[in-house]
Input
Amino acid sequence: MPEFHENIQTFVPIYEKKRNQSPTDFGLTNHIRGVIVTNGTTNDLIPEVKSFIEEAVLLCQPDDIHICDGSERENRLLLKKLQENGTILPLPKYENCWLARTNPRDVARVESKTFICTERKEDAVPTHKLFETGNLGNWISPDDMNMAIRLRFPNCMKGRTMYVIPYSMGPVGSPLSKIGIEITDSAYVVTSMRIMTRMGKPVLDSLRNNSEFVKCLHSVGSPANGVIEMESWPCDPERTIILHKPSENLIVSYGSGYGGNSLLGKKCFALRIGSTIAKREGWLAEHMLIMGITNPKGEKKYITAAFPSACGKTNLAMMTPTLPGYKIECVGDDIAWMKFDSEGVLRAINPENGFFGVAPGTSNSTNPIAMQSIFKNTIFTNVASTSDGGVYWEGMENEIDENIDITDWLGKKWNKNSGKPAAHPNSRFCTPASNCPIIDSAWEDPKGVPISAILFGGRRPAGVPLVYEANNWTHGVFIGACMRSEATAAAEHQGKVIMHDPFAMRPFFGYNFGHYLSHWLSMEKRGKVPKIFHVNWFRKGSDGKFMWPGYGENSRVLDWIVRRIDGEECYRDSAIGRIPTINGLNLNNLEYNVNISEIFSIPKDFWIEEIKNIQKYFHNQMSADDLPYEIFDQLNALSRRVEAL
Ligand code: GTP
Ligand code: SPV
Ligand code: MN
Output
């Protein structure tokens, strides 16, 4: 750590001096529209990138421009600047770790202010009933998008530096990768994007071979009344808006510095714009983890799993299996890009380079692998801090000394009897994937890894069994379409309502969900489709406690899934799909008291109600034109099977 700070000192004065120079001092060679480039050079930019920056400069009027090279030196400089501004605090207990505290009004994704812009509304969202508010995405017209930009962006970067972040989703140069250029006025975004993506000069260089990139413009905003509530975390919550225009591969985000709102490679690019590119090119961009599972015989398979935000992807992707002989390796924890290869094998890459994981609940008992990954080169956001220079959150009760004082995520002294959480429920760690001790050896393989199964799941406190298998691909797509889950702190939703969240993609669809379903159904014609399963770690008993221990014990469910992929007859048919036979699930040495018939029960009343809910959802959210008939048929067939229970 000390060496770290000393190094910065030597760079800062040079940087500051450059800022104070006028363009003429530079002989006008390194400027864009009269605004000086203090880092990097315009010579590195292909004309398309340069004109994108020019437009942004004219609109936002930054003081200067910094073209990110992704170097260690640059990173130290920015961390130093962030520290001076009070945006981040050092965490001396660890190696190069930092704590950011946001404006308390900027703590999660804002789904209600996230829009897809197309000429025709029906290209973006299903044509829902007029009296209902569609919840499968928000549409905005091109005129309204332009207006939204014109009302927010002019001069919004006055007094600030404009950073230009060249980044690659996927390994630089891989045929499956795509490039983005994010322009932002947040140094926090730059340092986070450096962890979450492959960022910097090599990406600019690779643009010379293929000039295609997704344009991303981001500003933390400058409030209309000129009052910045929190100098260390400027934002504009009143006017926050996140806009996507798939036809131009364009993302424009204003007003928030947080996670998916500002790290535009993640949800905005890899999922919303990504899903539209994937539709066009015949592949899938999904909200899924990717993991390798090696069984006791040494046979390895890869699976993906789609659970809604804060429903267990990171935990499953890094799990420590309790079943002896099993080995888990992590390819990715949030996003999968999947494509059939020339042999018809579905292959997946993780387009990201790091983990932006939920902190609360992460501990040595739940996710020891995450705990081994996150205390080096990590930026924490909205966690609590400890008097010995470390971090704290709910779930870490057994991992700190008794006499340690805790400061909550708001920077106030925390008292454990206060009834308030020390860390924000959506607090996160931002950690390089390479820190993960079980990162898969093929995680950067440009070909991707072959996928044998796809899991869907969510938080279902009642009625939904621990695991079931789809009868076939179409049934599996139907199961994905019917997904529901308890709301979490990852977005602005309040309370624990059970929300529809098809494919865990509801907040992330880049185009009409009905068309998305047709696309999924069509995959069967493109290659060898994997088996589909639904899992639920979150069923609760009459005592209100989880019926299943979860975490590492989920390896027992993975074991059943792997045996099903191998064709073992360890299942029986049920009204909703295939469930394990009485002895199908390996429960050897399980210490948790599990009532196996309860956890696999399929209560008729519950499922009748569930089907009604799904019928109503489809009916209100989309017209008959949008909903593929196969899904409708599946719903009727399920209804008949449940009636017969
Ligand atoms: P995003 O990053 O928002 O997409 O979330 P995620 O799907 O990666 O969720 P994550 O793995 O971070 O888990 C979120 C919360 O669910 C944490 O508080 C976990 O402790 C909890 N959780 C994860 N797996 C299990 C499980 O098997 N059982 C129980 N009871 N809780 C779990
Ligand atoms: C999610 O909400 O699903 C996340 C975190 O993975 S964010 O980057 O904020 O979208
Ligand atoms: Mn996610």
Remarks:
- Residues 307, 309-315, 333-334, 357-358, 360-361, 366, 490, 537-538, 546, 550-551, 554 surround guanosine-5'-triphosphate (ligand 1) (CB under 6 Å).
- The chain has a mean pLDDT of 94.
